[in-house]
Specification:
The chain has about 90 residues and is α+β, with helices and mostly antiparallel strands. Helices cover about 30% and strands about 45% of the residues.
């Protein structure tokens, strides 16, 4: 039986408001990242769905290092385990 996991994480990214659109474009281009909302004040809600925790921390670092990003922080992180064998059988 092959157990796999999926990591579901949400982030809040604080961006200089005048650069909100360009930073959102860069985030949306990242694999496994999806934008769920934003505000005029420059806050962006991002959800990641990944296969391992390392990708979550790497993505936080990449987003935080984008020009005009002030801060990126993890709000939620859940790990779901599932049996990949049973999904193949269905």
């Amino acid at each position: 039986m092959a157990l796999q996991e999926v990591h579901i994480s949400s982030l809040v990214v604080h961006v200089k408001p005048e650069f909100l659109a360009s930073v959102k474009e860069q985030i949306a281009a990242m694999p496994n990242a999806e934008i769920y909302g934003d505000s005029e004040e420059g806050k962006v809600i991002v959800v990641l769905e990944t296969e391992n925790q390392g990708y979550v921390t790497d993505t936080i670092d990449k987003i935080n290092n984008l020009e005009h990003v002030l801060n990126t922080f993890l709000v939620y992180h859940q790990i779901e385990h599932f049996d990949s064998q049973s999904e193949d059988d269905s």
